[in-house]
From TrEMBL:
<keyword id="KW-0472">Membrane</keyword>
<keyword id="KW-0808">Transferase</keyword>
<feature type="transmembrane region" description="Helical">
    <location>
        <begin position="62"/>
        <end position="91"/>
    </location>
</feature>
<dbReference type="GO" id="GO:0009273">
    <property type="term" value="P:peptidoglycan-based cell wall biogenesis"/>
</dbReference>
<protein>
    <submittedName>
        <fullName>Putative CDP-diglyceride synthetase/phosphatidate cytidylyltransferase</fullName>
    </submittedName>
</protein>
<feature type="transmembrane region" description="Helical">
    <location>
        <begin position="20"/>
        <end position="42"/>
    </location>
</feature>
<feature type="transmembrane region" description="Helical">
    <location>
        <begin position="185"/>
        <end position="206"/>
    </location>
</feature>
<keyword id="KW-1133">Transmembrane helix</keyword>
<keyword id="KW-0812">Transmembrane</keyword>
<dbReference type="Pfam" id="PF01148">
    <property type="entry name" value="CTP_transf_1"/>
</dbReference>
<feature type="transmembrane region" description="Helical">
    <location>
        <begin position="227"/>
        <end position="247"/>
    </location>
</feature>
<dbReference type="GO" id="GO:0005886">
    <property type="term" value="C:plasma membrane"/>
</dbReference>
<feature type="transmembrane region" description="Helical">
    <location>
        <begin position="159"/>
        <end position="179"/>
    </location>
</feature>
<dbReference type="GO" id="GO:0016779">
    <property type="term" value="F:nucleotidyltransferase activity"/>
</dbReference>
<keyword id="KW-0548">Nucleotidyltransferase</keyword>
Length: 335
């Protein structure tokens, strides 16, 4: 392994060399300082009911725990980032399997988990050909495993759920980890994480303020068309401004390309959110888990990343080649 690859994987000293990283971390720090003061001021003004006050406090304390768990691995290096994404993938799959009943199919779940582990290795190795090949390979193995059980009853459901779970939590989230193979990985990943979370907040605030027709009343009754459009506008502007600090030259430095990046993040993030809402409605659960107080399960918070991670990865990779200047197959020794 070259010194450059080692520094990218485990070096933490360059964490704040990128302006976008400094700005995002500073904004997050400012939010943590101001949020309790705002809650206190609204409470003194009589604008908060006891239930809403308790809910805001619970959510603040949850974010106080969640944000460091998300941001610290990215700051520490590519290897901690990749491992954190792998853990996120496994936790999301666990909640999906329990919600859908797939956890009862032990051998299918083990196969999906092994597929996610293989994806993590391909990502850490910077072996893109293997990363791409893992989709048909794992689908083939899942189909063969299900067939070998000699249980035709429920065959389609077992295979479909396992394939769907692997694609969402292995491949889709794997693209988030693969961004760690780029020299700008801290800026790229934090931009995506920061944007999709604010995308949800923008939709909530605008929707509550303007109201109007529901976006998808049978899927997510609280979402409005005004909230969705407001999030698209605000998130696109946010990404446009932040991405200017990352892409100072090259194809993605153009204003149109940065606006498209913002649109893609907002729209794909909202569809990711709605896709998990559809799953929950279908199986009849309110939250996919209860690991995070005030937020439900891990999947309830990571839903916006499911479709935005591969969308953003391929958009940036098409225009500006992610990780092209970095050594490949750093673990397997093929590069």
């Amino acid at each position: 392994m070259s010194g450059i690859a080692w520094e990218r994987l485990f070096g933490w000293r360059p964490a704040f060399d990128e302006r976008a990283v400094v700005l995002i971390v500073a904004v997050l720090g400012g939010v943590f300082v101001l949020a309790p003061l705002i809650i206190l001021a609204l409470d003194h003004a009589g604008r908060l009911s006891p239930a809403l006050k308790a809910d805001l406090r619970s959510r603040y304390l949850s974010w106080l725990i969640m944000v460091p768990l998300i941001v610290l691995p990215v700051l520490l290096g590519a290897a901690p980032t990749i491992l954190a994404v792998a853990l996120l993938s496994l936790l999301c799959y666990r909640e999906f399997a329990r919600a859908t009943g797939l956890f009862r199919e032990k051998i299918m779940s083990v196969t999906v988990v092994l597929g996610i582990v293989a994806v993590t290795f391909a990502v850490a190795d910077h072996w893109y050909a293997f990363f791409v090949a893992l989709t048909p390979i794992t689908l083939t193995v899942l189909t063969a495993v299900a067939t070998s059980l000699d249980r035709p009853a429920g065959y389609i459901q077992r295979v479909a759920l396992a394939v769907f779970g692997f694609l969402l939590f292995g491949i889709c989230l794997g693209h988030l980890g693969y961004m760690a193979n780029d020299t700008r990985f801290r800026s790229l990943i934090l931009l995506l994480l920061f944007s999709v979370q604010l995308n949800d907040i923008f939709a909530y605030i605008v929707g509550k303020s303007l109201g109007g027709p529901k976006l998808a009343p049978h899927t997510s009754p609280n979402k409005t068309i005004s909230g969705s459009l407001g999030a698209v506008v605000l998130t696109t502007l946010l990404v446009y401004l932040l991405s200017g600090l990352i892409f100072t030259e090259g194809p993605l430095s153009g204003p149109v390309q940065r606006l498209v990046l913002g649109l893609l993040i907002s729209i794909s993030g909202q569809f990711g959110d709605l896709s998990v809402s559809s799953i929950k409605r279908d199986v009849g659960v309110k939250d996919t888990g209860s690991l995070i107080p005030g937020h439900g399960g891990v999947l309830d918070r990571a839903n916006s990343l499911l479709l935005s991670a591969p969308t953003v990865f391929h958009y940036i990779n098409y225009l500006d080649s992610i990780g092209i200047d970095q050594a490949t197959r750093v673990l397997s020794g093929g590069g």
